[in-house]
Amino acid sequence: DIQMTQSPSSLSASVGDRVTITCRASESISSYLSWFQHKPGNAPKLLIYAASSLQSGVPSRFSGSGSGTDFTLTVTSLQPEDSATYYCQQTYSTPLIFGGGTKVEIK
Amino acid sequence: EVQLVESGGGWVQPGGSLRLSCAASGFMFSSYAMSWVRQAPGKGLEWVSAITGGGGSTYYADSVKGRFTISRDNSKNTLSLQMDSLRGEDTAIYFCAKDEHTIPAEYFQHWGPGTLVTVSS
Fold this sequence. Notes:
heterodimer; A: 107 residues; mainly beta; 4-stranded antiparallel beta sheet; globular; B: 121 residues; 7-stranded mixed beta sheet; 11 strands
């Protein structure tokens, strides 16, 4: 099975900061990588698919990059509503493993 | 508009069974693979199971293999998850999610609101 290692597990940043979250696959997954934002009580929200494609309606301050085994989610100017837990997920092969999550707190 | 609505959650004793359903609308149900994803209290997201659009192939996480069965009724636009031999660690919110391809997996754009399953004596 492909394992997904996400880091950091949590971070605290100020409004306007640039935030970067990384996700590493245990083997190559090409660009089969999604990023989700999850807030308590809600369904996960797709932000990025195919490693770097921005989902329609998602603010352009979110971006994704990478291929193979190393991937990054970047938020260029953190906003108060970005407080959430972020997950990567590989869809290259089953089981469709999620990363452990990154909890983003606004200072 | 794509809509997914889960039902069937509730409280069950360890060793018991529960059947979850996900009612789908707003898209050609049989053309898309579907998955179940769960989140245990205080834990992250965990993919549970997937099924192809036609229902001919199924996939499971090791943690539920042999205990859970995913199925679909394309005539009723309904996805199901039969959960047997339930354990405390199966306590979670269960989400159904629509894939963007007929076979797993592309990406999960649409999710239901989730249904809570509690396994406890």
